[in-house]
Amino acid sequence: MIAEFSAGGVVIKREGDSVKVLLCLQEKLSGSQVYCLPKGHIEEGETYEQAAIREVFEETGIKIKNPRFIDKIDYIFIQRGSKIKKTVYFYLMDYESGEFQPNRETISIGWFDGEEAINLTPYSSEKKIINNALEMLKSEK
Questions:
Q1: How many helices (H) and strands (E) does the chain have?
Q2: Could you point out which of 63, 65, 88, 116 has its C-alpha 20 to 30 Å from the C-alpha of 81?
Q3: What is the 3-state composition of the chain as percent helix, strand, coil, each rounded to the nearest 5?
């Protein structure tokens, strides 16, 4: 089995008393479009946190501040006949600046209420990460 490592972020933007969560609309290899958290491969020499910050910027055009580790997820998938175990490290991040910049991976981005973000992503592991991020925010107050 091949091991792969990625990192990503749950980017939040505070709007008055409410908090919005950033999701990317991306087209998958199957051709379906799904909302997901921004994430991607860790490059040689990068820490998980550095990779998460870079990937968020590359996929969204958004600059972040105050990254803090949430959790990691593991899953297994088959690609070109090979079994791959992927581990993704996620960070809670605060929006700093920037606007969406179209790129080859992301069709659009959106800012959603927490429950809406959890309902929009089809991945149970990402639902859990978003929920964990929202719980962390409550404890930071």
A1: 3, 7
A2: 88
A3: 25, 50, 25
